[in-house]
């Protein structure tokens, strides 16, 4: 019971972050399931089944607040579903011993990307050019495949790419990625069902993650209009890097982990804290610059000097 309550809280927190950033529900939830002993395939399968409900709730919430571009949803969501089905099929065929370091490596790489992206890069300037299929189809295929094999990756792949294109405003990037993930979650769940059968899903985990995620969806859709993404992205990216550094070392070199792991985690923690500090300073500087730009120009004071009479 205690584990299910914890998973519900994780589902709430993961969806809160995902709905505000457009990423990190899968990587956060999968990372925790791996930590409590789930196999990689079972963890990814359970998370994706829960995501069918959470992404539906998130999509509805974003749609009601005007955060969704439906053309982008269809153009990226359909190829994403194809990639997710293929990724779920591949992961289902791997042994636990082979899948564990693979998933930890993918999650670690995604965490590093999220950490670096939100620590060192500002939001790009928006362009008026439309998003084209030659850009969205490969992006969807790669994002969907990584999402299924890594237990997460749709957001970390899709959201930064759409933001970097500058062709859709940030709140609609987040809303469209979250909404299209509904198709990805369905396709991945079907792939895992075909590859693993009903035994691949832990319904207790699914329900707990689902309840927490659905409760957070409307809050996250509201926050996306008000929350600065850089600081939250740095915090979440560092958490993913920290936890999956441990998982990867334990999977690749279990005999040497006792000697190497403490030092590695200390280094990661220091880098994480530094990145958060950099992101926080950038946020403060951006707000200060915005206030300066909005401030009215000072009115020149009238001269009070009495003219000299002749």
TrEMBL record:
Its main location: membrane. One of its GO terms (cellular component) is plasma membrane. The keyword Amino-acid biosynthesis does not apply. Keywords: Cell membrane, Membrane, Transmembrane, Transmembrane helix. Residues 292-310 have a biased composition (Low complexity). It is found in: Cell membrane; Membrane. Pfam families: TauE. This is Probable membrane transporter protein. It comes from Microbacterium paludicola. The lineage of its organism: Bacteria, Bacillati, Actinomycetota, Actinomycetes, Micrococcales.
